[in-house]
Amino acid sequence: MSTLQTTRRPDDPAGGAPPGGTVTVAAGAASPPAGPEPALKRLAAVVERLQRQVRDAQADADGRGVIELAKGVLVERLRCSPAEAAAQLDALAGETGLKPLELAAEIINQAAQDRVAEVTRDFLDRAAGAAAHAAAEHGAGDEPGAPAVAARLRSAESGALAAADTQAAAESLLEHALRPLGAAAVAVWSAGPDGSLTLAGSAGFTTEEATRWHYVPPGVAVPARTALLERHPVWFASLSEAGLPSIGHRGVPGGRVTIPTGTGGRVIGVLEICWPGATPAPSPRLERQLEALAELCARTLETRPAAGLAAAALPDTAYRDLSELIDLADGLHDPAFVLRPHIDATGRLTDFRIHHVNDRFADLAGRPRGLVGGALLLEAYPLWGGENGLFDKIERVYATGEPFRAAQMVLTAMVDQVPLAATADVSVSRQGDSVLLIWRVEDEAARLANLLQHAQRLGRIGGFEEHLATGEITWNSQLFALYGLPVGAPPVPLLQLPAHAHPDDEPAIGRFLRTLLHRRQRASAAFRLQRPDGVTRHLRVVAEPVLDAAGHLLSVRGAYQDISSQHWTEVALAATRDQLAHTEQQAAERNRLTLQLQRAIMPPSRGPIDAAGLQVAVRYRPAEHEHLVGGDWYDAVELPSGRVLLCVGDVAGHGIDAATGMVVLRNALRGLATTGAGPGQLLGWLNLVANHLTDYVTATALCALYDPADRTLRWARAGHPPPVLVRQGRAATLPTVDGTMLGALDEGFYEEGTLELQSDDVLLMYTDGLVERRDGTMEDAVARLLATAQQPSTSLELRLDHLLTHSNADTDDDTCLIGVHLP
């Protein structure tokens, strides 16, 4: 029998035998052998514990440099020995509840006050409220507090500074600073002067992937180039959605953050951080951390580039000797500046110093080379920093290395406080630590010639000059295009012009040539050119003779202009005028017929009508403009039954169609009224007429029947304004009854209203031309009508005339008005 006893320490949850542990084996009866599964679990636990111990040991080793640096700060500040500084560090760690590494990072931050210190809180404030602050931040689910951030960044800084090259620095950044943020990989790119990118260091990628992406040529769109060109951090939530390839885009297709790295205003590389999923939400705290890491990369790229990195891919390789750049500038045939960056005390680029001015320099303001050389660029040319952004272009070229070219750029200089502008072609390129600025001011003669060429092209004008003695003919390119000939073909002499023109235009061309060549006077002619391609163009030629001092004819110069579009426009305009005149004549004839029809049926006024004891008066006012002749109508007639039919209506539209529709409805209603039906039934039948016996006529109508036996008035309406009753000096509209517009629906319903007239009552029926206004509502218009109608009047005729006179309608429509008075 054998017994196995294992003594474990309390901090050994895996159950393995740690160094220094006790293992006791007692002999005895053999126990059953353990199964394979428990043995594998114990082995896995041992491996995990050992890996954790290795990671802790590596972290302690990496953080030892930070702790030793913090001890040095305490020795210098407290004037104590290293042993006392170590004791003081342990005591402060115990008081604040921080780990020694975190406390060491805070002490260094307070002493350094650098970019790393900016992303952490002040040491004293953090020491006073460590516990509360840590609880609040961890409770909110945010990233670790300021001490943890400071410890990570200082550990990463220590590892980067101790690294042999950028590759080792990238590994240190990923292990100490980026993995705690959830990042899976990191790449450090070096920017070349030609815009290329070279992989200086990477971590988290396979060796094959790093080899495949060791170099990105200029102009290839990748995330790192985006940050290089924009010169600020760029966040890609998903690399696959962005559609940009990059290192590890198949293995790590998640989010990316690219941060430009550089010093003194010049970008020398890009830090690219990769996440397996989406990037964390950007926050000022996280952005400052990543910018601090980018600054570490910049220092590493400047001092320890990657092993084996090609020299051509690193900055500062071209024109290292400034004298070579000066010799290059002096060899140019255009004005040139050699600019050097001007860095302020904080290391920020503020301006460029004009280090050298070549011999071809011609100042826009007329200053000599001695006054410009050695000055700051914005002091010598202050307007370059604003209106055209040339200074921004120079700054961008210096930062990214990407050259800038621009044609016809406006450059402005101040001359006695007056801006003087010139147009120039500009070239800006970075050469090592310097910038070469070259410009070429556009020649005035070339500028005017170019302007003339564009003017001739837009005006379809071609110029020529013909020397009569030598026969030499000069055409510009536009004239070849007008003739339909290729550039370089033999030009057509003036004497051969009739052979290229339409035969009918030969007399006009003959007069042109006689005036020009024999009378030696300026001449012009219009003709039809028959081109070789079969196209006929309408041209106008203008020419003048060139004479010597004795009056002899030397040459002829002039121009052709293509007036084809003008000719066809004139032809089309003439045809349009003829058609318009014919249309106007037809319209006038239709209006004349419409007026004759309307006035024959509806005279402007009729005398009083006495019917069944009623006094009836009517007024009709046609539209002022003949083209607005409408379809307003009225009727007042005594029926065979002794009742009186009173009606008004308004057909929609104007012209002959409205007038003929009015005639149909008016006559139909008069005939239907003889049946003895009520006003509602009459309007229902009239609606059938409008729907089936007319050509799409719609109208409103008001129909009333007066029975003298009982003085009763029955009335109905089809979308028309209700009648107005004036009784005892007060005017009011009758209660509204329902009724649809005629012709709107196949079947309409028309409600009837009943009114018993009293002595001296006045009933008014009208169309909307009496009251309607464009700038008001119908309610306001009716209210004004009531106020006018209730004014006293000695007779019905005068009352109707008063209503027409004081009508404020502005639609210029026809107006019908019926007045009924019961004595």
UniProtKB/TrEMBL annotation:
Where does the PPM-type phosphatase domain lie?
A: 615-822
State the SUPFAM superfamilies in the record. Answer: CheY-like (SSF52172), GAF domain-like (SSF55781), PP2C-like (SSF81606), PYP-like sensor domain (PAS domain) (SSF55785)
Keywords noted in UniProt:
Hydrolase, Transcription, Transcription regulation
Give any GO molecular function from the UniProt entry.
phosphatase activity
- Bias category Low complexity: which stretches? 20-32
Keyword Methyltransferase among UniProt keywords: no
Q: Do the record's keywords include Methyltransferase?
A: no
Q: Which residues form a coiled coil?
A: none
The source's superkingdom equals Bacteria
**Ranges for the PAC domain?**
523-575
InterPro entries cross-referenced by the UniProt entry: ANTAR (IPR005561), Bact_Sigma-Reg (IPR052016), CheY-like_superfamily (IPR011006), GAF-like_dom_sf (IPR029016), PAS (IPR000014), PAS-assoc_C (IPR000700), PAS-like_dom_sf (IPR035965), PAS_fold_3 (IPR013655)
Using the record's annotation, list all stretches that form the ANTAR domain. 47-108
Region listing for Disordered, in residue ranges: 1-37
Q: Which PANTHER family match?
A: STAGE II SPORULATION PROTEIN E, STAGE II SPORULATION PROTEIN E-RELATED
Q: What is this protein called?
A: Antitermination regulator
UniProt source species: Actinomadura macrotermitis
